Structure formats: C-alpha cells, structure tokens
Amino acid sequence: MAAMKDVHNLFLQEKPTRILVALYRDRSQEKYASILAKRTDCTYSHTVKVLDEFAEKGLVTFQKSGRKKLIELTDAGRSLAEQVNQLVTSLHEVNGH
Amino acid sequence: MAAMKDVHNLFLQEKPTRILVALYRDRSQEKYASILAKRTDCTYSHTVKVLDEFAEKGLVTFQKSGRKKLIELTDAGRSLAEQVNQLVTSLHEVNGH
Known about the structure:
The structure is a homodimer.
Chain A lengths: L1 H10 L2 H12 L7 H8 L3 H13 L3 E6 L2 E6 L1 H21 L2
Antiparallel strand pairs in A: 1-2
C-alpha cells in the first residue's frame, strides 16, 4: 500500500485525483461535497476548494437541491475523469510489476 | 500560460510529468540526465533523483555509454508515458474551454 501510494504521488496530485475519480466511479448515488470528503479522506473545506477549482475549469457544475449542492461532472469533466481513472489503473499495474 | 500551468498542477506533479513526457516525445536524440534537465527546466540533481525513482518503478533503464548514462523507457514506461502524454494534451484542451 505504501508503494502504491508512492507511484501515484510521483505523477498525480493526490486529493484532486481522488475527488475526480470518486465523481467518475461511484455512479450509484448523488454527489455532495460532504459525501465526497468522506469517500476521499479529505477535509470538507479542502474538498469544497478543489470542487470550486473544478467548476472554474468547467469540469463540474453545481445544482441546488434543497439546502444541498449537487455536483455533476460536465462532458469535459467526464472525459478527463475517464483518462485520469485509466491512468490510476495503470499506475496500480506499475506498482505490481 | 498561467492558466495552463494551473490545470496541469491541479492533477499532475509537474517535474516528474515533464521528465516522463520529454522521454516519450523527443525521440530524435539520445537521452541523458543533463539534456533532460535542460529540456524540462529542472535542476540536474532533481532530474537524477526523479530518474532514479523511475528506474526503481521499472519505468526506465540506464545504459552506460562511455562516461554517460543513457536513459531508455521500458515497455511499461512507454505505455505509461503514452497515457500521461494524452492526459497532458487533454488538460491543454480543458484550459482552452
């Protein structure tokens, strides 16, 4: 597990990568910052900061749902997330070499 | 250019990514740490450190050529570099959105 973390961190920024991949992989439920923070082991405030950066880059949109803000990947965000997800998988394989 | 740097750095570790992509893209000449350092705007000592990490992960091999150490991507390294290169291209497109 330590080695796996190593090679990820050699190329990828850990937290934004985790958050993007979580948005992409877990399609079973609606996404809110608080849920993503738990899933990705990030603080709530850091998760919100990263999500704001994603929105600024056009990777996600926010939709009000009552008092909560629902997060959705845009087409550009989904396409990027797909590639990042593949890279994460490849990095797992490199670790297993 | 500033924005471009932003989105790269949001997901990718800058220097290792540059070094891997330089090894992949520039097939016109033999690769040595000193040349890569110049190309990627890294210090020589940091470049050597990153290359040692690459070698440890099985991404590159070193071959003695006189007093110099020639660097070559392994098959695993080339395959990973191809994906990272694609991701870098996609991130450029995100910046242009």
